[in-house]
Request: fold
Amino acid sequence: MTFELKILGSASATPVLARHPTAQVLTVGASNYLIDCGEGTQWQMLEYRVRPHHVRAIFISHLHGDHYFGLFGLLGTMHLQGRTQALEIIGPPGLDEVLVTQARVSNMQLGFAMTFTAVDTEVHAVVYEDEQITVAVLPMRHRIPCAGYLFSEKPRRANLLKEKLPAGLSPQQLARLAQGEDLEADDQQPGLRHADVSVPAPPPRRYAFFSDTLYTPALADLIRGADLLYHEATFLEDLKERAAQTYHSTARQAAHIARDAGVKRLLLGHFSSRYKALEPLLHEAQAVFPSVGLATEGLVVSM
Reply:
């Protein structure tokens, strides 16, 4: 099953040509989960062929504009395109008030149900669940309440091996085997152990999204062994005092989190507009944690 991240925006608050505010799409199976929705996100979705009606839930980290100013426009487009399936929005308190006010003053009545879950940005707890994933808050330390998110795939079933299945099994027996059950012996055939005709499923995959945050080493414990970590890297290390003042992180600090958490891969993003070239941030992080990349627009990472 697909478990894939697509980057729609990599910039911080100030606009830069060819960079867009934070937005990402995590695709699990046939479902898309939008993570942050900076200004112009729906244009990026057009550019990179992300269909709005496939978005199952939207996760907003905090209420600084570069992380959610594109949300109301996207909701309006979903309405105009005839969306009918329900949509879940997860984010900090106050986001619902913003959306209700925008809808009221513009007299927009959505043609689909929308539910909002207000998250406690200071508590590591599950805030969303469906048949494919669970999502838990990662408490960020920023100037306003801010949440990161840990997306965890639910365990998959073992895969049956067709070449090991005896002939003559009924659909009901195949269904029981697919559920992990053993078949007892009967008059027609001997017993059949599930373990003898299957291979274990791959381990569940996990993606950790760190939004704007002061360098917080304790967060490593919450994402240990994750397949992929996205961590903001607004500044280089020579501006670490500026990073601390603004409650942001440096590329080197992001790499320390990745190394200490034992994640498989790291992506850097939320780049300050002062950096026209991004390679120095990459090189700074690689000195600490080699398996690192830049979360630039259009990048696709499969896990």
